[in-house]
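Internal tracking record. Fields below are filled automatically when a chain is submitted to the structure queue. Please do not edit lines marked as system-generated. If the sequence contains nonstandard residues, flag them in the REMARKS field before resubmitting.
Queue: standard
Priority: normal
Entity type: single polypeptide chain
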Amino acid sequence: MNFKLTHIPKRPEKPREKGLTMVMDKGLSLRQAEDLISSSKEQIDLLKLGFGTSFVTNNLAEKIKLYQSANIEVYPGGTLFEAFIARKKFGDFRKFLDQYHLEMCEVSDGSIVLDHKEKCDYISKLAKTKTVLSEVGSKEQGILISPGKWIKMMQNELEAGSWKVIAEGRESGSVGIFRPNGSPHTILINKIIAKIDADKILWEAPGKKQQVWFINLFGANVNLGNIAPNDVIPLECLRLGLRGDTFFNYLPDNIIEDLQNPEGDMAKARKAIKNSN
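SYSTEM-GENERATED OUTPUT FOLLOWS
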């Protein structure tokens, strides 16, 4: 931090197990990646090369090395995993990870229909040599999964070896744990966290209102993903109570009462200054 402020929530230092920020790179150039690192490397934990962009991104190896040198864990989007699986090329997917020295990967079935036992088998095999994130939920609007099924799939995938389970929200923030209008499925989320440790879940939350909702529910150190590169610093300010949406989250009651009381000490001081001018 550049200077001291009181009543700022403590954030774990990297590498951390909670309070993760996962950023989605949908095709940044090397120069843009360098700029992102320069501005936000301390705030970014995970960097997802979105969907299948790894297949067409220029200078892929150089970009991966660049992020890794900044202590940012890089992994390809789950859609790329699904593209390999749909073509029955799981072995080639593993070779791809090794070729680019990727120590993390994502296992998902948001676009393809995959038997859950088979999905867990893929997780188990990959977890022997890689850190695995697995994603639960469909990318299609209108496909509803019961809370019980969400919970069971998350439990099974964590037991199979997933480091974290991702709650699907997509880059649009309008499917999975969100309604088409972007508002959270509160009943679903509350039922999930009643059974699953919230620190084991990474919530995809690309929209500011969604980020605020999760911070208000879990606090500064909630795991959030699908964050746009330009939103990393704004999100950190939300976490720390340095934006209007979360400004009062960490201030003690006496300060809040004084700020809201027209006859409080601070109000009186401001009035005295105004009168003196």
